[in-house]
Amino acid sequence: MAIAKIAILTSGGDAPGMNACIRAVVRASLQKDIQVFGILNGYEGMVNGDFIEMNTRSVGNIIHRGGTMLKSSRSKSFTTTAGRKAAFEQLQNRNIDAVVVIGGDGTCKGALQFTNEYAIPFIGIPGTIDNDLYGTDFTIGYDTAVQTAVELIDKVRDTANSFGRVFFIEVMGRDVGSIALAAGLAAGAEDILIPELKTDIHELSLKLQNSRQKESYIVVVSEGDDAGGVLEIAAKFKQLHPDYDVKTLVLGHLLRGGSPSANDRILASRLGTAAVDALLNKNFNVMVGVEKNSICYTPLSQIRKHFVSINEEWKHLLDVLSY
Ligand code: F6P
């Protein structure tokens, strides 16, 4: 079967660089005479038939823009048998030969479920700020999110220093601590709490006490940390240290917005183009990724969450640099 017509969508949490990736998929396809349809609002739009034909100009002027021009959703209906059947009919009615999906773990799982039921191939592209996917060293949006977090934490440091405060700053990363670890290290945080490492508030308290001569303390907390969110952690900490001036800040969706970094634009362009290559080579139902700076393809059936592995070097960095 020759691929003549494809559809593309973005799903789940948007990530800076998704637009650059859409641009790459559209342009690489058109160059091979493949017609491209954009599906609006993720899988929800596939179920409801929200398709728009795309051309090279419809992806002009978007490489530098955050968010996703195709919009996104966390579709409930696509998780149902009836929803996927409706989605299949929408694709069939338009003679779509294959679908490219940009998103995270849930997006790849949705693609896998669909391809187990219907004979329309899918290609996944990792787009999530969380950098939590097996099959790629980096996901689109992670580099920008870390940079944004560092810039914001640097600003907090200025004001924290002026008052000698302890700040608990929460960053996104539902299950995995990649953003917290990278942003915390780059911002010189006094401690970093991530779901992959057990959090002990007493230990944290001792560590901060031992470095009391510092002007301020910043603790970067991953939203999925086992000790809870920043409010809970700060409350527990305050019980141990009623004398400390403790503040909390949730960076939340600030990390999802903004113009993508050069690295994310390049990664998105590479992965988008590689996704079209996969289709041309009939390498179906895979997620395209980058490992050791080379393009790689992993079956959708093998895609799962990838947790941060704290090796000896990281442990050493964390121990030595925060005092
Ligand atoms: O999956 C990416 C992510 O940004 C997570 O880090 C976060 O937990 C979640 O999305 C938030 O999603 P929503 O915008 O739907 O609340």
What top-tier CATH class of the largest domain fits best?
Alpha Beta
What are the low-pLDDT stretches, counting only 5+ consecutive residues below 50? none
Structural class: alpha/beta
Report the strand count. Answer: 11
How many distinct domains?
Answer: 2
Report mean pLDDT, rounded to a whole number.
95
What Rg, in angstroms, do the CA atoms define?
22 Å
Shape: elongated
Distance between termini? 61 Å
Portion in beta strands = 15-25%
List ligands, each type once: 6-O-phosphono-beta-D-fructofuranose
CATH architecture of the largest domain: 3-Layer(aba) Sandwich
Structure summary:
This protein is of the alpha/beta class and 323 residues long. It has 10 helices and 11 strands.
Would you give an account of this structure?
By secondary structure, the protein is α/β, with parallel strands linked by helices. It has two domains: 5-141 and 260-302, Rossmann fold (3-Layer(aba) Sandwich); 142-256, 3-Layer(aba) Sandwich (Rossmann fold). Helix content is 40%, strand content 18%. The strands form two sheets. It has a seven-stranded mixed sheet with strand order 3-2-1-4-5-10-11, sandwiched between helices. Strands 7-8-6-9 form a four-stranded parallel sheet, sandwiched between helices. The longest helix has 22 residues, at 142-163. It is elongated and about 70 Å long. The model has no long low-confidence stretch (mean pLDDT 95). It binds 6-O-phosphono-beta-D-fructofuranose. 6-O-phosphono-beta-D-fructofuranose is lined by residues 12-13, 74, 104, 128-130, 172-174, 223, 256.
